[in-house]
Amino acid sequence: EAEKEIKHIEHNVNFRNDVLLLLSEIKEKKGDYSNALKIMGELLDYKKEDIKALLRFGVLLTRMARFEDAKKTFSRILDRNPQNTMARYYLAKAYLYTKEVQKSKEISEELYKENAQNPYAHLLKGEILIKERKYEEAFTHLQNAININFWLSMAHYYIGILYALRGEHTKAISHWEKVVKIEPYTKIGKKAGEYIKTTLHFLNLLKKEME
């Protein structure tokens, strides 16, 4: 219903940009990244330097594993606004996905030195440390991230994995449940949901084995 209303508004008011951003966000939350990206492409066709649209465009490219295109988009934002925190965070993530860990670490250190209370600085450090298999250090930074911003679903997702690796399955499930609650239709939300089902199945098998 909300989507239909937005489409109606889009044709009747002058704030098309905001409407397209909102419509893209709805599509993204449903996990429809392709159409969300298409909507942002339409916006950028006539407003090429819109930072919000460029950022959303880059995030969607990242979610679709189009990392080289994502890096170009985030770099484009940073050419205009070198201090944009979210563009730097997502650029660092793209570097991680393309195994350019040193570049990602450089951005991580910059963000952390600028503001140690930035939840994305902690999240990024946690993600890098997981890649390096430094799980205890990663856990500390991920926990710091959600202490600052409880709604960071990626931090909950990784904390869940780290708890699972420790064998603390109940705590793992608790964090994955938060991911599902925050973003139920995205790929990460669906993966968390699958981990919950798999873990519960495993625990049930163990209980039956002990009966």
Please explain how this structure is put together:
- The protein is mostly helical and 211 residues long.
- α4 packs antiparallel against α5, α10 runs antiparallel to α11 and α11 runs antiparallel to α12.
- It is built from twelve helices and no strands.
- It is 81% helix and 0% strand.
Q: Summarize this, please?
A:
This protein has 211 residues and is mainly α. 81% of the residues lie in helices and 0% in strands.
Topology:
Elements: H1 2-10, H2 16-29, H3 33-46, H4 51-63, H5 67-80, H6 85-97, H7 101-114, H8 119-131, H9 135-148, H10 153-166, H11 169-182, H12 187-210
Structural class: mainly alpha
Number of helices: 12
- N→C terminal distance: 50 Å
Using the alpha-carbon principal axes, give the shape: globular
Q: Helix share of residues?
A: over 70%
Task: Give average pLDDT, whole number.
Answer: 90
- How is the biggest beta sheet arranged? none
Poorly predicted tracts of residues: none
Rg over C-alpha atoms, rounded to the nearest angstrom:
19 Å
Q: How much β-strand is present in the residues? A: under 5%
**Count of β-strands:** 0
Along the chain, the helix and strand elements come as HHHHHHHHHHHH
Characteristics:
globular; single chain; 211 residues; mainly alpha
